[in-house]
Amino acid sequence: MNFKSVTSFVLSSVMVLGFTQCSQQAAAPQQAQAPVAVSGLKIAYIDVDSLLANYAFYQDLAEEMTRKEENYRLALTEENNKLQKEYAEHLKKIQNNVYSSSERAQSEENRFQKRNQALMEKSDKYSQELLAESNANSQKISETVDNYVKEYNKTHGFNLIISKASLLYADEALNITAEILEGLNAAYNRTDQ
Questions:
Q1: What does the alpha-carbon distance between residue 86 and residue 108 come to, in Å, rounded to a whole number?
Q2: Domain check: are 57 and 78 in the same one?
Q3: C-alpha distances in angstroms, 73 versus 18, 50, 119?
Q4: 20 with 46, same domain?
Q5: pTM for this one?
Q6: Average pLDDT over residues 45-68
Q7: How far is CA 188 from CA 49, 50, 81, in A?
Q8: b/e code 41-55 from CB counts within 10 Å (16+ = b)
């Protein structure tokens, strides 16, 4: 073996050894990311969907919103039907040449367009009102639940209370939904009477 061959062999061995060490070092941080148990940490979760489905305050607000939506829908439908009926009569008048002039017919046509536009604007206004009220109701619910959970935690001492929606797995023993729901409904029933 000549010097050149030995040098190539040594360099190759060093490179292989270097790559092996680099790959082992690169793998080491991945191994260090294994789950770590935190002792003494008190955690609980709330199933918000179940909570809201059974929370009397939320249900009352939802029923009120449904009534308003229905009332708005009925008012708009009634007004639209009346407008459509009057417009159909207007078209019959045009066909029967009842109007004294084409200007008079056009004036009536413009009036119907304005009424139709006003009806569309009323519909938009109702939608905006419902959206604003829905957002306000969501804020009320959120604040009520948040405030109650803070009060609840003063006596229970959890380090962390989270929503089940963000969990992949949680032991059912950590679920405090029923306790929170009971307290929220009791507080709501006291203020409701």
A1: 11
A2: yes
A3: 75, 29, 12
A4: no
A5: 0.69
A6: 96
A7: 18, 17, 42
A8: eeebbbbbeebeeeb
Q: How confident is the model at residue 54 (pLDDT cuts 50, 70, 90)?
A: very high
- Give yes or no: residues 68 and 10 share one domain: no
Q: What is the pLDDT of residues 133-179, one digit of tens each?
A: 999 999 999 999 999 999 999 999 999 999 999 888 989 999 999 99
How far apart CA 61 and CA 54 sit, in angstroms, is: 12
Q: In terms of residues, how long is the chain? A: 193
Q: Are 129 and 81 in the same domain? A: yes
Largest Cα–Cα distance in the chain? 119
For residue 73 the two structure tokens come to 């829908």
**Residue 92 belongs to what H/E stretch?**
helix 56-95
**CA 45 to CA 165: how far, in whole Å?**
9
Least confident of 23-37, 104-118, 120-134: 23-37
**pLDDT score for 1:** 45
Domain range enclosing 23: 1-34
Please compute Rg for the chain using Cα positions: 35
Strands of the chain (E only): list them: 43-46, 160-163
Beta-bridge partners for 45: 162, 175
Examine the domain organization and report whether 80 and 160 are in the same domain: yes
The pLDDT assigned to 84 comes to 95
